[in-house]
Amino acid sequence: SFGVVLVELLLRREPIFTTVTGSGQNLSNYFLWELKARPIKEIVAAQVCEEATEEEIKSVSSLAEMCLMLRSEDRPTMKQVEMTLQFLRTKRLTSSHAAAENDEEMQSLLHTRSEVSCESLANNLGVSANPESGNSHKCYSLEQEFISSIGLPR
């Protein structure tokens, strides 16, 4: 079932897995039982927690829970599942695109701000920030330090 596949992805386990006691456990039953007993962030695999937001995890786990309903009338159709997953995917792509744009804008602002700071520092010191002048100083930023130190061994 689609619910089992979603749970496999969330927990990173096989449909029938071996517990710490050595017995075989049904992943669907385990998931539904644990969902009642613990918060979802404690149940899902660490990799999932790192890669997804809590809202995304809750949405997918809720969808998986609906797909695992015993009565077929209570389960969503494949089309409903597909549409829900497509919506979550679009939402994630939109938010990551917006975050990338915000990051680019922030980088641009930081770069502009560091140039202005260098120029004002040079003016306060009575030194020209013009690279063509003979006594120009190279402005240095912490950002440049971080970037240049990336390749150094630790």
From TrEMBL:
InterPro entries reported for this sequence: Kinase-like_dom_sf, WAK-like
GO cellular component, one term: plasma membrane
Keyword hit for Chloroplast: no
Example GO BP: cell surface receptor signaling pathway
Alphabetical UniProt keywords: ATP-binding, Nucleotide-binding
SUPFAM superfamilies for the chain: Protein kinase-like (PK-like)
GO molecular function term, any single one: ATP binding
PANTHER family referenced in this protein's UniProt entry, alphabetically: OS04G0307900 PROTEIN (PTHR27005:SF412), WALL-ASSOCIATED RECEPTOR KINASE-LIKE 21 (PTHR27005)
Name of the protein in its database record: Protein kinase domain-containing protein
Native source organism of the sequence: Oryza glaberrima (African rice)
Phylogenetic classification of the source organism: Eukaryota, Viridiplantae, Streptophyta, Embryophyta, Tracheophyta
